Amino acid sequence: MFADLLGRLHLSDFQHDMIATGGQLSIVFGILGIVGLLFYLKRWKWLWREWLTSQDPKKIGVMYIIVAFVMLIRGLGDTMLLRTQQATSVGNSHGILTSDHFQQIFSAHGTLMIFFVAMGLMFGLINLILPLQIGARDVAFPFLNSVSFWLFAAGMGLVNLSLIVGEFSAAGWLAYPPLSGIALSPGVGVDYWIWSLQIAGVGSLLSGVNFLVTILKMRAPGMTLMKMPIFVWSVLGSMTLIVFAFPFLTGALALLGLDRTIGTHFFTSDLGGNPMMYVNLIWAWGHPEVYVLVLPAFGIYSEVVATFARKRLFGYTSMVYALASITVLAFLVWLHHFFTMGAGANVNTFFGIMTAVIAIPTGVKVFNWLFTMYRGQIHFKTPMMWFLAFVVTFTIGGAAGVLMSIPAADFQLHNTLFLVAHFHTMIVGGVLFGYFAGFSYWFPKIFGFRLNERLGRYALYSWLVGFVLAFVPLYILGIMGATRRLDHYDASLGWQWLFIIAAIGALTILLGVGFQVAQLVVSIITRYDNRDLTGDPWDGRTLEWSISSPAPVYNFAVIPTVTDRDAFWESKQSEAVKLPPVYTDIVLPKNTGMGVIIAGFAFLFGFAIIWHIWWLMVIALFGIIGSMIVRASDDDTEEVITADEVARIEIAAAQRSVL
Amino acid sequence: MNHPTGNDHGTTSSYVIGFVISIGLTLNSYYLVVNKVLAGNTLLLALGGLAAVQLFVQLYFFLHLGKGPNARLNKLLFSLMFIIVVIVVGGSLWIMKHLNYHNMTPAQTSHSIIRDEGYQK
Amino acid sequence: MSHKLSAEQVQFDTDKTIFGFWVYILTDCVLFASLFATYAVLRNGTAGGPSGAELFNMPYVLVETLLLLTSSFTSGMALLAATKRNKSATLMWLGITFALGTIFVGMELHEFSNLVQDGNSWRRSGFLSAFFTLVGAHGLHITAGLLWLVALVQQVVQKGFTSGTLKRLQLFSLFWHFLDIVWIFIFTIVYLIGVVKV
Q: For residues A609-644, b (16+ Cβ closer than 10 Å) or e, as one string?
């Protein structure tokens, strides 16, 4: 009887093979270590009051970035296992992993890197900077923002829980049926995948709504759409994509979940189901998702290149039109992910042409950045170096993409390592480099001190060299016919040396991450010497640099009035006498733990469905509904910072900058 | 409401007009189908048309799209959603139709050849 | 509230929230679009089982449709009464909306249970999976709306017409009208076209 209460969960689900046990133990001990440290330092209350319950987008942004960085390290751990396996599992040797474990690892690697690293860094940076750039004190719906973050964290928790209890999906990062159906994947792995993404995906969807409204309704007076910083434009495009594309993910995941849990026949091979519809639906989300990630990175590059070239961004208007057309075109190309499924020549031709067309606005952007640098006064700081690394890698990856947009070529390259190399070029060289650039660019604004330049440069060089070493061999291997996701291949193929070079490349990237960790540690230790006292360390152009660093909790003591693009740059140039500011009371949202609680119930809800523990599912569902009702009937959600308090904080900051 | 944008919730008469038109359109569709007035593609077109008209009637009379303080943004985002849904749903049906056509079993293939090109012995 | 907001601030907050809710509704439209697309693709996947023409009871569905349409109208009347600060009329219209919605959900559950009892559950075929999911997703939205309505009535009774309750009334009526629009398409695409083309 008691066993029934736990659904499919049994003691044996905690037992794993050796390498998986290593992962399991490292997570358990990692968590125990953090918990122990918190008890030792007596920081629980502080953590809860200052961080976990915070509604301040700057703190939520920092939490996003911490989660994303930890997941980046876990995802890289997966990479090392994959690369080691492929470098060693040749001929009579079978490497270090079983094929089932290998499949789980590449599924987890893709899932983590897209949903919890790239999305996490993106939402982190948006939370940190977007309200500052539009001259706002907060996002449109602060509580919703905190719920979004905690749903993201709950999804992340479920992925990692699969290492401890049960298993993860072995069906690839997008879990195509019929392989991911209940007949061929009877375990809990795919359910873990479905529910972690479903929960995190709902969080992303809510964030998308939140930031869309923030940009459209919360801008400082005078900031018309065409006066917004280009980063804000890029986020507007990205959030529009989230709002209209993520429901397809929600739908596809829900239908796959129904197939697996209550026996519907959406994507089964028998009884009228159609697995191809899943592929169609998931890519109707999946392709826009790529642009969701890359558009904010484009925005960051635009800010960075204008700041460090000391010039106005070349072609602002064309940049805006390029962003807008990419936003719409993103919905017209999804079939290129399954050219080979057999839709026929006319369908493939249409989507092939639309795909190639996207290269045009993207090319416009690249040229705009290059022309911004032309005759500029370039300062080679770390963010600018990331940008330069990006231009080279991204152009190579883009050219590979245009190549594959030709259906006839795609039939040769589909599912080969050439494709793997292509999308890594875009996601690492395009997206990740952009977020690293943004992180080092805006770090002083959030923390009040700069990151160490030398270690940042070492990290960049390691990433760039490692990136080339890791992915150029994959392009070559792909053309030689190596399909992706191979856990073993024949020695006579002559591939091994290329796989070994790729593994060395992955190690070099790991070294880069090591430098990034060292950079953080060293910068924190020497923070006093690197303090940013002026609030404007890079001679910036946009509003976030007009306030002190670290940015005060209310962002702007006086909401600025905007008259021009590059509002802060223009105000620095103008000779107009600045009147002493008049401070008023500022209303900010009160901290609340409801976000943590709702996401906690969502976590339990997902866990219960994964393991078929139905009573727990019902309790969690009522928990979610109950918490929402309690929150909705709470009228006391805001608090006031008085004008005197604001004046005191502002004067203290001004005195620091004089010193 | 006594704020300046208070009239964006419509009036009783606008709700009544919308309600009556909607009922009329619904009964019309129902009548077309149940009494087999039209058939084939004409019927499908008529039903689609009636549903689309009712969509806009309700958007206008019930949801007051295009009125109130957010009118421009509401309309803009609605149009964008509409375009994207048309693209993705229409595109999906197009893609799936062709996928099904190119993935037939041998029996289905000969059946469709006979249907499209006539039976020849 | 612990502080006094100016009338403009309250108005701005209401506008912002309604706009945000509108964006949420658009995302829900896209979700339904994905279900409609799936239904359209799987419509002929009956796997030898019954098709829509053999299952649907059209007069019954017409009654459901008219009930929901009427409830959409009454929710609008409730909002109008609220803008005139007429508490008893507001509560009456909300009550009628609730009653109509509950009957609608009851009728839908009755239809579902009949189908399941005849062996035509969602496990029978791809077509029935898509049918149950699309119609059921709408029914779940309606059920959520009814729960929301209960909370709303309780707030109106307790607090009267504050800026908060007025705002939530507007949001609810948006949500309810939206669900009626979705039903128009279910009525047309699933039921009417379902009986036409065998």
A: bbbbbeebbeebeebbeebbeebeeeeebeeebeee
| C-alpha A543: how far from chain center | 24
Length of chain B: 121
Instruction: Indicate the SS3 state at residue A587.
Output: strand
Rg (Cα) of chain B, in Å, rounded? 22
Q: Is A27 exposed, middle or buried (0-12, 13-18, 19+ CB in 10 A)?
A: middle
Give residues with Cβ within 8 angstroms of A452, minimum separation 6: A519, A522, A523, A526, A530
Name A587's bridge partners. A640
- The residue ranges of every structural domain in chain B are 1-69, 70-121
Indicate the residue type of C131.
F
Tell me: the pLDDT tens digits for C24-62?
A: 999 999 999 999 999 999 999 999 999 999 999 999 999
The closest alpha carbon to A59, from A11, A116, A124, A112, belongs to: A124
Strand-pair partners of A416:
A483
Report the run of H or E that residue A640 belongs to, with start and end: strand A638-641
Contacts of A625 in chain C (CB under 8 A): 147
Query: B97 pLDDT exceeds 90?
Result: yes
Task: Choose among A142, A76, A62: nearest CA to A506.
Answer: A76
> What pLDDT digit, counting tens, does each position of A562-576 carry?
988 888 988 888 877
**Amino acid identity, residue A19?**
I
In chain C the domains, ranked by start, together with CATH numbers, are 24-192 (1.20.120.80)
pTM reported for the whole predicted model: 0.95
**Predicted confidence band at A580 (pLDDT cuts at 50, 70, 90)?**
confident
List, for residues B41-74, the tens digit of each pLDDT value.
899 999 999 999 999 999 999 998 888 888 899 9
Amino acid at A284: A
d(CA A394, CA A594): 42
Q: What is the mean pLDDT of residues A355-366?
A: 95
With contacts defined as CB-CB under 8 Å, which chain C residues touch A209?
Answer: 20, 23-24, 27
Is residue A503 classed as helix, strand or coil in its secondary structure? Answer: helix
pLDDT digit string (tens) for A646-658? 999 888 888 887 6
- Give the chains touching B; criterion: ≥3 Cβ pairs < 8 Å: A, C
Polymer length in residues for chain A:
659
Using CB atoms within 10 A of its CB, is residue B116 exposed (0-12), middle (13-18) or buried (19+)? exposed
Contacts of C7 in chain B (CB under 8 A): 3
For residue A151, the model assigns a pLDDT of 97
Return d(Cα C5, Cα C167) in angstroms, integer: 15
CA distance linking residue A394 with residue A380, whole number of Å: 19
- Alpha-carbon separation of residue A646 from A555, A560, C2 (angstroms): 11, 15, 19
A589 forms beta bridges with: A638
A499 token code pair = 């796989």
Supply A18's token pair: 């050796």
| A239 contacts A215 by C-beta, under 8 angstroms | yes
Distances (CA, A) of A82 to A321, A416, A503, C110: 41, 16, 9, 53
Are A502 and A482 in contact by the 8 Å Cβ rule? The answer is no
Distances from the Cα of A48 to the Cαs of A56, A364, A595, C29, in angstroms? Answer: 13, 47, 12, 37
CA nearest to A274 within chain C = C42
Angle at A539 between CA A363 and CA A440, to 5 degrees: 65
Q: Which domains does chain A have, with CATH numbers?
A: 43-592+637-658 (1.20.210.10)
Query: Tokens 């669900």 — which residue?
Result: C179
Predicted-complex ipTM score: 0.96
In the block, tokens 């309810």 appear at C176
Residues of chain C whose C-beta is under 8 A from some C-beta in A?
A: 1-3, 5, 15-17, 19-20, 23-24, 26-28, 30-31, 33-35, 37-38, 41-42, 44-47, 49, 122-127, 129-130, 132-133, 147, 151, 155, 164, 168
Q: Are C169 and C79 in contact (CB under 8 A)?
A: yes
